[in-house]
Amino acid sequence: MTDKHTPGPWRAEDHGEVQDYRGRMVTIRDRRNIHVATVDGLDASVRGQELANARLIAAAPELLKVLEDVRRIVANQLD
Questions:
Q1: Most exposed of 34, 36, 40, 60 (fewest Cβ within 10 Å)?
Q2: Cα gap 74→8, rounded to integer Å
Q3: H/E element holding 76?
Q4: pLDDT digit string (tens) for 18-72?
């Protein structure tokens, strides 16, 4: 499968509470330090979950690889 996303690994970079900004800001960056995404607490319903959400997003490339490996193993078992 050809990747259609920024190649991993990704990391979550916690900026903490940013002045003049509501809630915590966490950025997700790739191994070249290129910005992939930002998770923040602007929406009060997710405030306090920013870092956990960012870590989950940052794990996406590795999770995708594991799922592709599982799919391949299951397909081989069914053949």
A1: 34
A2: 24
A3: helix 60-78
A4: 877 667 889 999 999 999 999 987 777 777 888 899 999 999 999 999 999 999 9
